[in-house]
Amino acid sequence: MTRRLLSILSVIGLCTTLCAVLMSVVILVGVGAGYCIHRLVPDIDLGSATVIGVLAFITVIYAMLRLLQTSAGITSVDGSSDEDADDTVLSDEQVEYVTDQLTDAILTNLGRSRRKPGSRSRPRPQG
What we know:
This protein is mainly α. The chain has a domain at 1-72. Helix content is 74%, strand content 0%. It has four helices and no strands. Helix 1 packs across helix 2 (46-74).
């Protein structure tokens, strides 16, 4: 039991250290970019420039990770693409059946959602 607790604590310590290092890198890059922005445009306060730098760095990292994730999904480790593994082909009759079902469902839904527009004017009092 002690060994398991020790391993859990070491994993928590490793994760905390990793998060601290990553946050430090993000903040340091943001401060550096903010300082450069402040030097280029002195009217921008150093604090605002640092926030701009941090946000820009986080946006770039997010975009890079999304691109890497997308490219990793296109080609697997062995080099074959996802399209090679997909041998399922629908017949023309199956495609037409699914298309008809979807079209009917959409038309039925449109028919239910259409209502007669009400009059915007108030009814005149009789008298």
